[in-house]
């Protein structure tokens, strides 16, 4: 294949006359001898004496050559078949070298994490690479922050691959305890990047931790860990922690009863005081709760969380409705539009009870001099239309229509 370092550098060139020949060389090498091609890429990526640009590009080409997450199913199946057809020694070599690359430079390490996840998607359900998860968990337990960061990143990507992959989900569920132990080591680490990657891994692992959520002690530890992360100094970590709470609400609604006050405190603090990206996740948490309770109407498992806190929840949503952006449309996504969507679901979950908390706000603000208050009143009225009994709502609409 020639000077692989130069070829990798040329692949990143903006000049088509330089990049084109490099692409032809790479495609030819990939098609003629995939195994040898992958080995050459791994060696280039692992060689610390090579230019950083060359190492990064070698990692990108390697990832794209085994990327089982390709969007087109046919292409993904083709790549999987080519990987399976490689000699076992070649596959083992690539996997071992990926694990030895956890302490690479940050950009290379991220690519390594993606390659590991792509390979795990096909290998683990087939009974291969059974030591991957133990190795990643052990790496998290080291004193090297770079190893921890990359291992947690890889764990997060591997967990993300569970979507639509029942075999991988079952395999990871069987190893969920060491995975969670590794994640919790990262949650309380001094490095902000390690903490973020731990929260991200936990968010991606939510689907297969059901049996831990059934255990009161473990459930409490999990929720405490997520809530602690929601108070982190870094916005990205807080946002990811709140996103994890949203996923928790959707999957484990029935297990949240003893923790509702804690979850209320964390989510409403985010809504009222945090950056918009965090506030949105706080609103989505209560949207998820309300939508579940609409589905569970008249079902014994309905815990009626929204009814229990209806007055306070409406006040939070009403404040958000008054944060409209000038010229916003229904397609915009911000605190105001998220609150209106949440209020629609809350009204449906609360039924007639929404009238007692919403209508005083509507009456008090419909004639306000400030346009945001007026629009919030109209919007609140529109959001609750489908919540109460139709007969009651028709009467209220008839009384209010001349005003609005």
Question: Quick summary of this structure?
Answer:
The protein is an all-alpha fold and 404 residues long. The protein has 23 helices and no strands.
What key attributes describe this structure?
single chain; TPR_IPO4/5; elongated; ARM-type_fold; mainly alpha; protein transport; 404 residues; repeat; cytoplasm
Give an account of the 3D structure.
It is a single chain. Among the domains are: 215-303, no CATH class; 304-403, no CATH class. The protein has 404 residues and is mainly α. α1 crosses α4 (52-65) and α19 runs parallel beside α21. The protein is elongated, with a radius of gyration of 26 Å. The mean pLDDT is 92. 72% of the residues lie in helices and 0% in strands. This is Importin N-terminal domain-containing protein.
* Rg from alpha-carbon coordinates: 26 Å
Q: List the secondary-structure elements in sequence, H or E.
A: HHHHHHHHHHHHHHHHHHHHHHH
- Tell me, briefly, the overall form: elongated
For the sheet with most strands, the description reads: none
List the uncertain runs: none
Instruction: Compute the separation of the termini in Å.
Output: 74 Å
Assembly type: single chain
Class by alpha and beta content: mainly alpha
Helical content, roughly?
over 70%
Total DSSP helices = 23
* Beta strands, count: 0
Mean model confidence by pLDDT: 92
Beta-strand fraction estimate:
under 5%
């Amino acid at each position: 294949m020639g000077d692989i370092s130069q070829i990798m550098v040329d692949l990143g060139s903006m000049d088509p006359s330089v990049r084109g020949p490099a692409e032809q060389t790479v495609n030819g090498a990939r098609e003629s001898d995939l195994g040898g091609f992958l080995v050459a890429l791994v060696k280039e990526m692992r060689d610390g004496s090579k230019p950083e640009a060359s190492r990064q590009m070698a990692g990108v080409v390697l990832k794209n050559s085994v990327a089982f997450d390709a969007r087109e199913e046919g292409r993904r199946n083709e790549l999987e078949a080519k990987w399976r057809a490689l000699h076992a020694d070649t596959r083992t070599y690539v996997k071992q070298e990926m694990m030895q690359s956890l302490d690479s430079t940050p950009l290379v390490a991220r690519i390594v994490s993606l390659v590991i996840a792509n390979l795990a998607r096909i290998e683990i359900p087939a009974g291969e690479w059974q030591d991957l998860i133990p190795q990643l968990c052990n790496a998290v337990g080291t004193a090297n922050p770079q190893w921890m960061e990359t291992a947690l990143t890889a764990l997060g990507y591997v967990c993300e691959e569970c979507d639509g992959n029942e075999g991988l989900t079952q395999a990871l569920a069987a190893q969920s305890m060491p995975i969670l132990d590794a994640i919790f080591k990262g949650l309380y680490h001094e490095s902000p990047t390690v903490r973020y990657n731990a929260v991200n891994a936990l968010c991606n692992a939510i689907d297969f931790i059901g049996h831990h959520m059934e255990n009161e002690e473990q459930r409490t530890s999990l929720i405490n860990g997520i809530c602690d992360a929601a108070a982190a100094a870094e916005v990205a970590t807080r946002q990811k922690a709140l996103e994890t709470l949203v996923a928790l609400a959707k999957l484990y609604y029935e297990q949240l009863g003893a923790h509702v006050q804690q979850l209320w405190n964390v989510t409403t603090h985010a809504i009222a005081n945090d950056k918009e990206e965090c506030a949105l996740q706080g609103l989505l948490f209560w949207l998820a709760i309300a939508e579940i309770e609409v589905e569970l109407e008249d079902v014994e498992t309905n815990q009626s969380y929204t009814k229990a806190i209806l007055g306070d929840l409406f006040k939070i949503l009403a404040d958000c409705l008054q944060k409209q952006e000038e010229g916003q449309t229904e397609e915009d996504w911000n605190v105001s539009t998220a609150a209106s969507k949440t209020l629609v679901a809350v009204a449906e979950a609360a039924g007639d009870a929404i009238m007692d908390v919403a209508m005083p706000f509507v009456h008090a603000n419909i004639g306000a001099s400030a346009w945001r208050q007026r629009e919030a009143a109209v919007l609140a009225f529109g959001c609750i239309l489908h919540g109460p009994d139709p007969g009651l709502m028709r009467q209220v609409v008839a009384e209010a229509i001349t005003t609005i």
